[in-house]
From TrEMBL:
Family stated for the protein in its record: Belongs to the cytochrome ubiquinol oxidase subunit 2 family.
Gene symbol of the encoding locus: cydB
Membrane-crossing segments per the record: 6-32, 74-98, 119-139, 159-183, 195-215, 221-240, 247-269, 297-320
PANTHER family given in the database record: CYTOCHROME BD-I UBIQUINOL OXIDASE SUBUNIT 2 (PTHR43141:SF5), CYTOCHROME BD2 SUBUNIT II (PTHR43141)
Compartments (UniProt record): Cell membrane
Name listed for the protein in its UniProt record: Cytochrome d ubiquinol oxidase subunit II
Membrane topology: Multi-pass membrane protein
Main location: membrane
InterPro entries noted in UniProt: Cyt-d_oxidase_su2
Amino acid sequence: MTLPDVWFLLIGLFFTGYFVLDGFDFGVGMSLPFLARDDTDRRVLINTIGPVWDLNETWVIVAGAALFAAFPEWYATVFSGFYLVMLMILLALILRGVSFEYRHQRPEHTWKRAFDRMIFIGSVVPAFLWGLVFANLVRGMALDSNFDYIGSFGDLFNAYSVLGGLTTLTLFFTHGVIFASLKTDGSIRVRARRLAARSGLVTIVVAGSFLIATTLAHGNALSTVLSASAVVTLVVSYTANLRGREGVAFASMAVTIALAVASLFGALFPDVLPATNDPANTMTVQNAASGHYTLALMSWISLVFVPLILGYQGFTYWIFRKRVTRSVVTASAH
C-alpha cells in the first residue's frame, strides 16, 4: 500500500468520524420542534450536545486540512465545483454555532424561539448537503483535462445525489433522536424513543434504497459488503430502540453511519473523482496526491496529534456522560 492509498484511507476515517459524531448533533438540532414541549425541554435537548458539539466539528477541520495537504487537486476541484454548496454548509454551521451561544443571553420568548429556528435550519442544511456532496463524488462530475468542474450548479442536484442527501438527513435525524433518548430522562426520553421508532422506518427505506442504488451503479466487492453490513446494523439499531436498549441502538446507528461512509469511499477507490464526460479526465488517488515528502511528513504529524485529539475527546465524553434532566436544567437557571 502506497502513501497516497494510506492517506485516502485516513481521509475516509476523518470524514467517518465527523459524520458519526456531528451527525447526532445535527439530529438533536433537527429534533427540537418534534421532541420539545416547552423551553425547558429545548434546553434539555441543547444541553445534551452543549459540551461536545464544537469538539465534534473538529473532525471536519481535520478532514479538510488533510484533504488540502494530501490531495490538493481533489481539494481544489471539490471546493470549486461545490463552492455554493460548501458556502451554504459553512453559513449553516455558523448560524447553528451562534444560536447555541446566544439563545440564553436574553429571557424573551421570541428571542429564544428565533434562535431555536436557526438551530433547526443550521442542522437540516448541512445534514442534507453533505450527503449530496458525497453522492456526487461517487457518481462523478464533468471534468476537463485540468480537473476543473465544467458542469452547472443544477447538475449537482440529480436524482442520485438528492437521494444521498435524504439518506444523511434521515440517518442523522434518527441518530440524534436515539442520542436524545440515551441522554435524557422522563417524558422527553419516552417521546424520543417513539420518534426514533417512526423515523427509523423511514431511514431504513431511504438509506437502504441509496445503498442499493450505489451498489448497482458504482459498487464493487468491498463497497457491497460494507453496504450490506450497514443495512444489517441499521435494522439492529431499529430493533434495539424498540426494545428500549438505547445504548445498543445508539452504538449500532454509529456503526451504520461509519459503514455507509466507508462503503462510499470503497466504491470510489482507486479513483477520488470520476469524470462523467471523459474517463481520461478521472481523478485518481495517484494523480491527485501530493509528493512523497509531503505525505511522509503528514504521516509523522498525524501519529502525534490524532491520538491526542482522540484522547481529549474521549475524556470529554466521559466527563459529560450523565443524563440531562429537566430538574438539573431548571436548577441551573437559578
